C-alpha cells in the first residue's frame, strides 16, 4: 500500500503539470498548422474547434436546414452527434459516426459556416463540448479557434493570438489550391473574418491577456518555435 502511494507521489512530482493552450486568430494565420505541431512536440492533445463548426454546418446542409434561418438552425442544433479525435498526428471528426474530415472542407461549407456558427444555441452546445474535451486531456491540450481565449477557456494557461496580413494569408491559402484566384481568395477571407468578428455571441477577438504573434514575415517553423518557447516558459513557471 505504502509503495503504491510513494510511486504515485513520485510520478506526480516528475510529470509536467497539464497545460491548456488557447490559440485564436483570423483565417489563414496558421492556427491549425501551428497548433498541431506544438501539441505533437509537447505531447499534448489537439482540438480544431473550427472543424466542429464546419461539421455542424455540413450536417445542417445535408439535412435540409435553411442555413439563413437562425431559428431553424437553433431548433436542429442538438441533433447531430459530433466527435473529435484529439491526437495531433491524426486528428479526426465524425458526425453521427460518419467520417466528416473531407466534406467539411468544401467551398459550400466554408461559405456557410459563419452563418451557422453565429447562432447562440449552436455556440452554447459546441462550447460545452469543447470544455469537456479540454477537461479530459490528462497531459493538457492545444485548442485553436476564434473565441477560445475569450469565452471557451478564459482560464487557459497561455493564450496566443495569431495574425498576418490579408495578402500573406491569401497567398498561403491560394498555394493550397492549384489555379486559385488570389484576389478572390483574399476577398473571401476578409468577408469571413468580418462575419466572425462582427457576430454578437463570442466573436473572433483577442483576449486581453493573449500574446499576439504577427506571422506575416515568419516561416511556419519560426511560429512553431515561438509558441513552443512561450508554452515551455509557462510550464516551467507552474
Ligand atoms: N508562417 C507561415 N508561413 C507560410 N505558410 C504558412 C504559415 N503558417 C501557415 N502556413 C500555411 O498557410 C495555410 C493555412 O494555414 P492554417 O490552416 O494552419 O491556418 P488557420 O489559421 O488554421 O486557417 P483557418 O482558420 O482558415 O482554418 C496552410 O497551407 C499552412 O501550411
Ligand atoms: N472557435 C471557433 C472556431 C471556428 N469558428 C467558426 C468561424 C470560422 O469561419 C469557421 C471555420 O473555422 P476554420 O476551420 O476556418 O478555423 O468556424 C468559430 O466561430 N469559433
Automatic annotation (TrEMBL):
Example of a GO biological process term: nucleobase-containing small molecule interconversion
Any one cellular-component term (Gene Ontology): cytosol
Enzyme class label: transferase
InterPro entries linked: Cytidylate_kin (IPR003136), Cytidylate_kinase_dom (IPR011994), P-loop_NTPase (IPR027417)
Catalysis performed (reactions): CMP + ATP = CDP + ADP; dCMP + ATP = dCDP + ADP
EC number(s) reported in the record: 2.7.4.25
Keywords: ATP-binding, Cytoplasm, Kinase, Nucleotide-binding, Transferase
Gene Ontology MF annotations: ATP binding; CMP kinase activity; dCMP kinase activity
Residue sites binding ATP per the record: 25-33
Localization: Cytoplasm
Span of domain Cytidylate kinase: 21-231
Entry similarity comment: Belongs to the cytidylate kinase family. Type 1 subfamily.
Protein's recorded name: Cytidylate kinase
Organism (species): Streptomyces sp. gb1(2016)
Name of the encoding gene: cmk
Amino acid at each position: 500500500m505504502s509503495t503504491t502511494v510513494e510511486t504515485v507521489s513520485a510520478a506526480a512530482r516528475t510529470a509536467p503539470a497539464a497545460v491548456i493552450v488557447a490559440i485564436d486568430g483570423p483565417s489563414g494565420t496558421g492556427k491549425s498548422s501551428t497548433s498541431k505541431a506544438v501539441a505533437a512536440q509537447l505531447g499534448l492533445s489537439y482540438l480544431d474547434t473550427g472543424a466542429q463548426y464546419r461539421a455542424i454546418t455540413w450536417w445542417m446542409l445535408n439535412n435540409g436546414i435553411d442555413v439563413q434561418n437562425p431559428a431553424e438552425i437553433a431548433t436542429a442544433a442538438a441533433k447531430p452527434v459530433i466527435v473529435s479525435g484529439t491526437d495531433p498526428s491524426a486528428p479526426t471528426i465524425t458526425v453521427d459516426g460518419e467520417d466528416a474530415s473531407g466534406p467539411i472542407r468544401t467551398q459550400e461549407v466554408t461559405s456557410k459556416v459563419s452563418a451557422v456558427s453565429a447562432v447562440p444555441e449552436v455556440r452554447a452546445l459546441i462550447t460545452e463540448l469543447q470544455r469537456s474535451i479540454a477537461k479530459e486531456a490528462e497531459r493538457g491540450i492545444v485548442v485553436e479557434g476564434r473565441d477560445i481565449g475569450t469565452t471557451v477557456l478564459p482560464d487557459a494557461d497561455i493564450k496566443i493570438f495569431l495574425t498576418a496580413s490579408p495578402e500573406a494569408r491569401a497567398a498561403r491559402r491560394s498555394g493550397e489550391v492549384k489555379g486559385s484566384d488570389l484576389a478572390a481568395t483574399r476577398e473571401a477571407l476578409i468577408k469571413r473574418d468580418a462575419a466572425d468578428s462582427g457576430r454578437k455571441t463570442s466573436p473572433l477577438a483577442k483576449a486581453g491577456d493573449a500574446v499576439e504573434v504577427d506571422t506575416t514575415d515568419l516561416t511556419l517553423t519560426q511560429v512553431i518555435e515561438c509558441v513552443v518557447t512561450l508554452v515551455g516558459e509557462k510550464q516551467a513557471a507552474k
